[in-house]
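stage 2 :: seqdesign
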């Protein structure tokens, strides 16, 4: 498979990178209960992954940049935090 070159913007600048096709992804929900009684569910959404050329972590592993987002679902909110709907 040919390398699909791209650029990634990191806090320290813009770098050359190679898109790495995603073979499989398992994106699970995380449930969070806040101190105010609110319950949320959050799930990451991975769109693409690129390996940054010539950049490595302290263990010698290549650096990767991930494009993505998240989905947020509000499971429950205490009544005292809700706005009255008319």
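stage 2 :: out
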């Amino acid at each position: 498979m040919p390398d699909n070159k791209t650029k990634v913007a990191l806090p320290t600048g813009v770098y050359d990178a190679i898109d790495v096709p995603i073979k499989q992804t398992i994106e699970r929900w995380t449930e969070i209960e806040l101190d105010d009684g609110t319950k949320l569910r959050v799930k990451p959404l991975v769109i693409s992954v690129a390996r940054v050329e010539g950049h490595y972590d302290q263990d010698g592993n290549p650096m990767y940049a991930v494009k993505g987002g998240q989905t947020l679902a509000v499971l429950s909110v205490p009544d005292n935090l809700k706005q009255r709907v008319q």
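stage 3 :: structure notes
- The chain has a mean pLDDT of 94.
- Strands lie at 4-10, 13-19, 30-33, 39-56, 62-76.
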